[in-house]
Amino acid sequence: MSRQNADNTTASRRAVPSTHRVTRSATVAAASNPNNSAQASTLAPIPSSSKDSKQPAAPASLRKVAKKSHNAASTSATLHPFHAPRPDFVFPAEIWAMILEFLYVKCGGKAVADVARLSPLVCYEAEAILYRSPTITTTDATKRFAKTIASCQRRALAVRTLVYQPYGHHAPDAHRQAFRTILQHSPRLSGLNTNITPVVHDQGKAVLELFRGLHLRLKRIGRVPFLLSEGAAEVLRTLKDLEELCVHGDGTPEDTIVSIQQLGLPRLRILEADATILQLSMHAPLGNLTHLFITTPCDQASLTRYCTVFGRRLVSLRVRRELGDYSGRMYPTRALPWARMRSLKYLQIEDIGRSVLYLAAEEARFESPHPPVLETLLWTPAWTRGTMRAVNASADGDSEGQRRVDVRRFAKRVLQTWPTLKLVVYGWRLSEGYQCWISPKGRGKECAATPEQLNAGAWARVSE
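RESULT FIELD:
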């Protein structure tokens, strides 16, 4: 029986095409020289067939490419387990980068880390993805990451943004030293995000202390609210490349707060600020400001003043309207200085108040003046939330069904009458949202809004 198996094995080896009979020394020599990737691919070709020899007219999808490479490598390994072509000989680095990006989006970082074990070339491309935006939440993780990038320049150059937790560490001094090491060894670091919210007074102070004395090229500090005191301004003035900033001044005497202009940030484009900071900064417009989020609920008069001063170059605007007790639907078509806001493409309005009276015969002038190039409108009416704090549920003629009819009517009319408007998203209840648009046949369409559309930071990601 063993003699018959040996004969079958010998016959199968003779059936292998001659193009795959590559010596082990030639394969090892090609692998040891990274500059000869083209030559290496000729030394260890993929098994060819009549089906594989046909070139497609258009590039295949990443799934097909990855599946084809896996099948080719598996076939070669079955035929010659010692002479199988390495994966980085099958595809160039650019193709592997596309495959790994697709895998990262679909399956997460663990799947990319598993693929990284295939070869050094694949490992380098995987590290560029895995080290691009790491999340550091504990002191031990911060120390390990600092040691890693301090000893490997390639990994340090891959770091672009950090997701960081500045509070709750058991060894604050060791954590601070490790994090400053990360900042010093990440020359391409451009963004810093945290998971803190502005509920503790001046909680961004600890983050600013990490920057003191360092020469950083940060462009974005997201979700970190800074109390704009003189001490904070001293550190922020050193970040000349900063483009995005979140500041507040609530609960602090105005004589201790610095205005936005005094920071001297020439590239500042995206600003999240409360009414206190904006009131101190109204003496001069911010020349490069294109994205603005006013965190404080404002009445109509205050919104008009802010839009007049800061609205000249705004591309994206997010505001909160303070309505108090009001009657009717309070559609977001009330007059604002739209003539000055000729670049506004994205407008998000969140209403705060309580509807006390429903007006059945209310006339809404949807054709009223509006931003001339507006493309996206996000509106969260107070009366669509359905809570007792937002609407008088017992008002005569008002009901949940009538509210849905009215908000849909508004969305359809503005889409038809505002020539540049492409999308309307309205809030419903506490966390739901619906998007409305006009089909090519002129019919109004509606479906559930996507998480990206309802994301709290969508206003800051609008392209100019």
